[in-house]
Design goal:
Layout: H1 3-21, E1 24-31, E2 38-44, H2 51-68, E3 76-80, H3 91-96, E4 101-110, E5 113-124, E6 127-132, E7 137-141, E8 145-150
Parallel strand pairs: 2-3
Antiparallel strand pairs: 1-2, 4-5, 4-8, 5-6, 6-7
Amino acid sequence: MEDTLLTDKIKAIAAPLFNSLGVELFDIEYGGAQRGGLLRIIIDKEGGVSLDDCAKVSRYLSRALDLEDIISHRYTLEVSSPGLNRPLKRREDFFRYLGKRVKLKTLGPTKNQEIFKGKLSGFEGDTIFLELDHGVEHQIQYDQITQANLEIET
């Protein structure tokens, strides 16, 4: 089964289940079907994800996926949180973490740099505003970002 079709089916099964458990789907990764397969479900919630949240989601989602039988071969289900240096993948993620430290990588050099670290100070239209460590505000176009992660604040 094509990965996009599979992830869409998993999302449809998981959405009502996740709502009832008070978590949201952050990401789905699936690979290695020839070697048994690994289905990685990454969940998030306000205030952070606990080990108990991961265990509940794993238990209930495993049952639901077995009932629907959308993955016909053996696979391993792994449920986890995005972690402290979670990736920012959607526009909503940038809004959610305004005021937090981030690390951004861009498609190509901007002001002779491709990696930027600082506080996410704004997001308007397609422009991200980043207050760099030395106090200067820098603007980066959203479509120029290839990778973005929260930075652990010390």
